């Protein structure tokens, strides 16, 4: 029976960047196949495979590839820095080049080798209330919420709180509440950051549509931008997240993020799994 199904098996790759974990499906040469239902089914850590985000690779005309991102609740994410670095790693290895271009909802991003690690230019941060987006005009440097977070868009919305001691923060409780605050019409990702030095930040994250994750690349970029905007750090910082360390560098051409990537395993979904979706 399984052999009859073999031709309809769907291969995927499980990768992670600092424990921010992804299922990657390569749809080059065919139509996109991921739907909200399929994303939810694969994203279920008990009945499916489980992931923080699903990334679907697609053909692109103006870049080497295009990438679509899905959260485990079936919603779309406009940006996903760590998955961009992971797929960047695949494309750098596949092409043998030092740089590849990746089209995402927020534009064409560039991924480069950085020794054993991968750097991605996540583009310019969005600071206008309607770009992020927020529901009405407010000071994006000090949002009118308890704790006065900074609002930053990196192709997806982020609210960054500065806290004296990260160990005292109820990330799930506060994250869940802020994610759905009416100030954010498309909900928001929520970061909590403790400044350790002008070049070092400790950050924990609650991701929109996913919950607590060990790392969030776009969230790390948003946090570095927010800290610099508030005058707390320089333009280059090292950031410790639950899954390890990233380097963020806010340059003239955008926010560069550098860190490790890892392939966990290659798997296949069989037709019976897909038919249950
Ligand atoms: N983990 C991702 C971000 C996912 C953001 C997603 N939760 C959203 O709805 O915007 C990253 O490395 O940037």
UniProtKB/TrEMBL annotation:
Substrate binds at residues 20, 53, 71, 81-82, 156, 189, 207-208, 217-218. The active site is at residues 80, 216. Keywords: Amino-acid biosynthesis, Cytoplasm, Isomerase, Lysine biosynthesis. PROSITE patterns: DAP_EPIMERASE. The record marks 158, 207 as: Could be important to modulate the pK values of the two catalytic cysteine residues. SUPFAM superfamilies: Diaminopimelate epimerase-like (SSF54506). It is found in: Cytoplasm. One of its GO terms (molecular function) is diaminopimelate epimerase activity. The keyword Isomerase applies. GO terms for cellular component: cytosol. Its EC number is 5.1.1.7. It catalyses: (2S,6S)-2,6-diaminopimelate = meso-2,6-diaminopimelate. One of its GO terms (biological process) is lysine biosynthetic process via diaminopimelate. Gene3D superfamilies: Diaminopimelate Epimerase, Chain A, domain 1. It holds the Pfam family DAP_epimerase. Pathway: Amino-acid biosynthesis; L-lysine biosynthesis via DAP pathway; DL-2,6-diaminopimelate from LL-2,6-diaminopimelate: step 1/1. Belongs to the diaminopimelate epimerase family. Catalyzes the stereoinversion of LL-2,6-diaminopimelate (L,L-DAP) to meso-diaminopimelate (meso-DAP), a precursor of L-lysine and an essential component of the bacterial peptidoglycan. Homodimer. NCBIfam families: DapF. This is Diaminopimelate epimerase.
């Amino acid at each position: 029976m399984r052999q009859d199904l073999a031709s309809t098996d769907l291969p995927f790759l499980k990768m992670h960047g600092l424990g921010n974990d992804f299922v990657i499906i390569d749809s080059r040469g065919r139509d996109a196949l991921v739907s909200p239902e399929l994303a939810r089914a694969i994203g279920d850590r008990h009945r499916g495979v489980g992931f923080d985000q699903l990334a679907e690779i697609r053909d692109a005309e103006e870049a080497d590839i295009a990438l679509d991102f899905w959260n485990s609740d079936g919603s779309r994410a406009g940006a996903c820095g760590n998955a961009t670095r992971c797929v960047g790693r695949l494309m750098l290895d596949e092409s043998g080049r030092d740089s590849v271009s990746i089209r995402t909802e927020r534009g064409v991003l560039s991924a480069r080798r950085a020794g054993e690690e991968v750097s991605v230019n996540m583009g310019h941060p969005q600071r206008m209330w309607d770009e992020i987006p927020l529901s009405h005009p407010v000071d994006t440097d000090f949002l009118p919420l308890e704790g006065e977070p900074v609002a930053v868009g990196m192709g997806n919305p982020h609210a960054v709180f500065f806290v004296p001691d990260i160990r005292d923060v109820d990330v799930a409780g506060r994250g869940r509440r802020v994610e759905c605050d009416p100030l954010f019409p498309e909900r928001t990702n929520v970061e909590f950051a403790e400044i350790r030095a002008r070049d070092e930040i400790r950050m924990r994250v609650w991701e929109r549509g996913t919950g607590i994750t060990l790392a969030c690349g776009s969230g790390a970029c948003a946090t570095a931008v927010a800290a610099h905007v508030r005058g707390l750090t320089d333009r280059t910082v090292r950031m410790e997240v639950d899954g390890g360390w990233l380097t963020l560098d806010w340059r003239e051409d955008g926010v560069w993020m550098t860190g490790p990537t890892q392939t966990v395993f290659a798997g296949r979904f069989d037709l019976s799994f897909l038919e249950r979706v």
